[in-house]
Design goal:
By secondary structure, the protein is of the alpha/beta class. It contains ten helices and five strands, in the order αααβααβαβαβαβαα. The chain has a five-stranded parallel β-sheet, sandwiched between helices. Helix 8 links the parallel strand 4 and strand 5 (205-207). Helix 1 packs antiparallel against helix 2 (21-38) and helix 5 packs across helix 10. The longest helix is centred in the last third of the chain and has 21 residues, at 231-251. It is globular and about 45 Å long.
Length: 258
């Protein structure tokens, strides 16, 4: 917008000092062109699971989808989180971190489900777990958490409530600190620290990808905005998580108490 305004002002100035009309008009058209480009997406290029652009699921739509996942008779590997985990910013669903790792790590005796909901806080994940009928086995849960809880003083208590719910379902939890674009906000760093402390106290698997992503950030173009990846960012996140998640699934092949 600033560049467009500058070009328009320049065209009027040049016209005032006798610059040709056509040259001034060309600058005006160039300014309008820049302004039209500036009207493009300022929020991540969202693609839902039907392939429709700019149509991220609402909480109600997501829960409806999760309740309707086909019963394949296999233990569920459930991903929980917010819009980043859902895949906001990816050019297609296949480019999300979930889909990239599913393609590499899902075994024939597992059913991977993306249960992430845009804007969902940690405590909101309970509604996702409860949307899956008790008869369905949830063997593993990958929770990417923190970005939607920056000012939540009850964050450790919410993690506790979620963990208790998962233990009742016999699920093993892998807790991932949700990354964001550097420099990291103090509120996010605090949540990462609380998540790590909670994991240690419960003997849970924990992974913080920030340090690896920070090194890779020098390659550029990882972020749409402060918390949503581009396709390259999703690939980098998947690369960071791969070994730790592979180890988690190998150490806990059938979930908790199964």
């Amino acid at each position: 917008a600033a560049l467009a305004s500058f070009l328009m002002a320049l065209s009027f100035f040049l016209g005032g000092i006798g610059f040709s009309f056509l040259s001034g008009l060309a600058l005006v058209l160039l300014a309008i062109g820049f302004e039209m480009v500036n009207l493009g997406p300022r929020y991540p290029q969202q693609v839902d699971y039907e392939g429709r652009r700019n149509n991220i699921e609402s909480k109600e739509e997501a829960l409806f989808r999760i309740r309707g996942i086909p019963a394949e008779g296999k233990p569920i590997v459930l991903w929980l989180g917010g819009s980043q985990t859902w895949g906001a910013g990816a050019s297609s669903p296949s480019h999300s971190t979930f889909s990239l790792l599913k393609a590499k790590l899902e075994r024939g005796n597992q059913q991977w489900v993306n249960g992430a909901i845009s804007g969902a806080k940690t405590i909101d994940q309970l509604s996702v777990i409860r949307a899956i009928p008790p008869a369905r086995i949830i063997s593993h849960v990958i929770l990417v958490s923190g970005a939607n809880d920056p000012y939540n003083h009850d964050y450790p208590l919410d993690l506790e409530a979620l963990w208790n719910e998962l233990r009742g379902r016999g699920a093993e939890l892998f807790l991932v600190a949700e990354p964001s674009e550097p420099p990291l906000r103090t509120e996010y760093l605090e949540k990462h620290s609380q998540a790590q402390d909670f994991s240690r106290s419960k003997g849970l698997s924990f992974f913080n990808p920030e340090a690896q992503l920070l090194r890779k950030n020098l390659e550029g173009y990882l972020w749409w905005d402060f918390v949503h990846f581009t396709d390259l960012g999703f690939q980098m996140m998947a690369d960071c998580l791969f070994s730790a998640l592979q180890r988690f699934l190998r150490v806990h092949p059938s979930g908790n108490n199964r």
